Amino acid sequence: MENDAQRKNTYSLDPESPEEMARLIDLDRMSTREMGGVFAGLSEQDIAGLHDILDLACGPGGWVLDAAFERPEVDVMGVDISKIMVNYAKARARTQKRLNASFRVMSINDDLDFDDASFDLVNARTLAVAIPGARWEPLIVECARILRPGGILRLTEPHDMGITNSPAFERMTSLGLQACKRAGYGFSIDGRSFGLTHMLPGLMRKAGFQQVQLKAHVVEFSSGTEVWMDFYRNYEIGFYLNKAFLIKMGLISQEEADALYQQTMLEMNFETFRAMTHAVTFCGYKP
């Protein structure tokens, strides 16, 4: 029988999977690096005013621990629906002696279990396949509730799953985005993207956030680039785990998925492989 947390879980992959944990650890590091740092997009004045920070769907806790290291005088909390992820993050915090970092098991599909005006910054990255499209507006409203006046909501979301010259990769990501649409993620009307980056600024303004700013991130991971191996390893695990999701959504058979996966990994190793990915960070201020 499913427990309460399992029923509330809307993540497209298994949040208790050790393989997914390993992928998320690397993804945390990659994301922070490619964004330009832990607090990229915030001004020195913004950072100086931080006392309490919340990271939503924190996974194994990489961003929380990095933020706690950079600002040891600030309390940084991460929440995630996965008990395994949270326990691992707590162990990392103890090992690294990050006394200002803490973690809780919590579903972001419900009202957030925090008092009004509890935080100065709420951060979230890559919720694209963690919550359904219908959950975005109430979640942003909840973020406004728990932020103090002058507090900041910082969201970073992908536009796509990568654009390449690999036929197999393009087929894999096309199926992935179609599966996301069928499952109710994002706001895409045709399944060609996550359908998030053009919608989030308006949802933030509707919830009362002001001075909504955006910063685009474009990363090339073609063959021969310094980041190719990081991206290859991320897709190697992500695409493997995502096969079950594609099959569940009725888009492909197990045999077809296995063959497509092998061909995708092969083509990513070609010297002629060319690739780029796109994401956007949004920062909005509570009046």
Quote the average pLDDT.
93
The helix fraction, in percent, is 40-55%
What's the name of the CATH homologous superfamily? Vaccinia Virus protein VP39
Element-by-element helix/strand order = HHHEHEHEEHEEHHEHHE
N-to-C terminal Cα separation, in Å? 45 Å
Taking the sheet with the most strands, its summary is:
8 strands, mixed
CATH architectural designation: 3-Layer(aba) Sandwich
> Which CATH top level class fits?
Alpha Beta
* Global morphology: globular
Uncertain segments: 1-7
Tally of strands: 8
What fraction of residues sit in β-strands?
Answer: 15-25%
Q: Name the assembly state.
A: single chain
Radius of gyration computed on alpha carbons: 19 Å
Protein name: Methyltransferase domain-containing protein
Organism: Reticulibacter mediterranei
GO molecular function: methyltransferase activity
Domain Methyltransferase: 53-151
